[in-house]
């Protein structure tokens, strides 16, 4: 099961940056919500990034209903 938060490697891949100050700038410019821990590390929810970049739909698509006109008399 994947972690709730992006890993350090995930953040590097997402931002193309290794330094946290540059990562924060990149995250802000992409509109990615994040928090800074007391130790200075960055926390990003995996689900937020997946929603933002369209990895997973936020809710299942409703099936469309159409009448079966072939059974009409």
Total of DSSP H or I helical runs spanning 4+ residues: 3
> Regarding quaternary structure, how should these chains be classified?
single chain
CA-based shape: rod-shaped
**SSE string:** HHEEH
Q: How many angstroms does the end-to-end distance come to?
A: 53 Å
Any key phrases for this structure?
two-stranded antiparallel ribbon, 73 residues, mainly alpha
Task: Walk me through the structure.
It is a single chain. With 73 residues, the protein is mainly alpha-helical. It has a domain at 8-57. The protein is 36% helix and 5% strand. It contains 3 helices and 2 strands, in the order ααββα. A hairpin with a 5-residue loop joins β1 (35-36) and β2. The longest helix has 11 residues, at 20-30. The mean pLDDT is 88.
Would you summarize the structure shown here?
Helices cover 36% and strands 5% of the residues. The protein is mainly alpha-helical.
């Amino acid at each position: 099961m994947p972690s709730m938060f992006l890993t350090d490697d995930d953040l590097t891949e997402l931002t193309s940056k290794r330094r946290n100050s540059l990562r924060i700038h990149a995250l802000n410019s992409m509109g990615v919500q994040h928090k800074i821990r007391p130790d200075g590390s960055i926390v990003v929810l995996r689900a937020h990034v997946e929603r933002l970049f369209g990895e997973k739909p936020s809710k299942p698509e409703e099936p469309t209903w159409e009448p079966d006109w072939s059974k009409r008399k």
